[in-house]
Amino acid sequence: MTYELVYSEESLKQLKKLEKDIQNRILSSLERCRIRPHAHIKKLVGNPYFRLRVGKYRVILDVKDDKLIILVLEVAHRSRIYG
Q1: What is the reported pLDDT for 1?
Q2: pTM of the shown model
Q3: Which segments in the chain show pLDDT lower than 50?
């Protein structure tokens, strides 16, 4: 039972702006999350979303456990993502 990855328009734009090797690292980390997402992600404080840490980059996610969907909302360097 694996989750489906769904990307927002914003996250796709942000992902395309990154270097190819960083894109590949983020995409492979997201693929790994499809099987057991809660083992890899952390809940954001004061926010309904989760974060996935990939080196110095962060991926903001919304996990719909009832529908088995992981919605990728934002992808950015950790210095810019939380602002």
Answers
A1: 81
A2: 0.93
A3: none
Tokens of 67: 């529908």
> What CATH fold (topology level) applies to the domain 4-81?
YaeB-like fold (3.30.2310)
Q: Are 78 and 58 in contact (CB under 8 A)?
A: yes
From residue 58, how far is each of 1, 30, 32, 54 by CA, in Å?
25, 11, 15, 6
Burial class of residue 8, CB neighbours in 10 A (0-12, 13-18, 19+) = middle
Closest CA to 71 of 1, 4, 2: 4
- Domain positions in the chain: 4-81
C-alpha separations of 62 from 6, 12, 20, 31, 50 in Å:
10, 15, 24, 15, 6
The Cα 13–Cα 34 span in angstroms is 21
